[in-house]
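Exercise: predict the structure of this protein bound to fe (ii) ion.
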Amino acid sequence: MESEIIQRLIESGELPTPDRIKALLQVQQQDAVSIPIKKTKIVDKDSSVEVLTKDTYIGKKYVVKDFVDYFRNRYTFYKNLISNRPEFSTATSIGRLQQGDKATIIAAVFDIKRLPTGTIKLVLEDLTGQITAIISSKKDQEVLDKVKQLVPDEVMAFKGAVGKGVFFVDDLFWPDIPVKQRNLTKDEVYVAFSGDIHIGSKSFLPKDLDKFVSWLQGKRGNPRQRRIAAKTKYVAILGDVVDGVGIFPSQEKELDINDIYKQYDVAAKCLAEIPSDKHILVIPGNHDALRICEPQPVLYKDMAAPLYDLPNVIMLPNPSTVKLHKQDDFPGVDILMYHGYSFDSFVDSVEALRLAGGYDAADKLWEFLLKRRHLAPTYGATLALPIEQDPLLITNVPDIAASGHIHKSKIGMYRGVRTISGSCWQDKTAFQLRMGHNPTPGLVPMVNLKTGHAWQLKFK
Ligand SMILES: [Fe+2]
Ligand SMILES: [Fe+2]
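Solution:
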């Protein structure tokens, strides 16, 4: 088992340090058992949380067939979604294309080549076969702008003309989300979006976190701010509760606490200070003590035991969707929580996202993902299990989509969906400096579920 881990680390370009091997060995042992979500529905007179995400992880050895089924199911989801729209109802398959036809196909992007002339050569694929597709550099700017954002494995509609063994693309269309009419509560109630606490790191900012917690306790702020604190019934923790141990080479130099159990112990002590009338929704992140392969299960009970002891904490997998504030006469507000590990890959590989602001523009990252109805449209952008019902697909459009990971708070809106990027409670690290991150610690995005209004609170 150890040699497999070393091999995997080398293949992924990581140094197989003893700490890293030990941490992964521990995670593998834990992974042998799937941990179910304990609380799936909590209702009291002022609040309600319903967990919509099913615990889909099965501890098993995945084989080639699992990958085949995974991509087939993913394709079928998109085909049904896109061909249900009137403008794409006549879409045909690659196997039925006839030379000279004008046609629409729904296909996965298998390969992208940008030729020196500016022309784009794609290989497109559906369940009936593959075809080479050409997008001329002389197309309208609007089409060329879309082409710049293409990523491998995404599935979308292509309109064009069929040549001899080639498809000349006129235009291309993402699956996208319909415009969302967000559900707004009758009560005045708020959600605070936090996370990336990184307990254990030397850069953890306990004083700032303490200011946030004492505001939630009603001990800080002006009368209006205290009233909002009292009406904040939900606190979303978007992963990276702790800094972890052996997450990256030489991490021990950056740790104050180098024992994972002690890190979760301190985390529980911090979260225990949050008043018990507030539901604390916790998803894991890549720094937490479990596999980074998504979906990440709920935090392991033996490592994070003190957190499980808190009555108002709801442990969730990453990603998760929860329905908040459902009442007899109100359908509830759906919140998609995703740590955001795939963001790194897309900021790195998609020039259009970098030009739009990269890590400083999480709203554009969310737009990119919502358009594709997937949290990691390129397989490998994040390590993902080939689970038949792809948990990274955005099958239902949420009211709010929230992420952490990049430590840069940003509020956005895309086709009616409120997008949130949380901040952190960790100062800028040397690693973030190298990666070009520009964190904004101590900010907490808030959403008023009655009005839809979102803004940031500052605890610096
Ligand atoms: Fe983080
Ligand atoms: Fe992270």
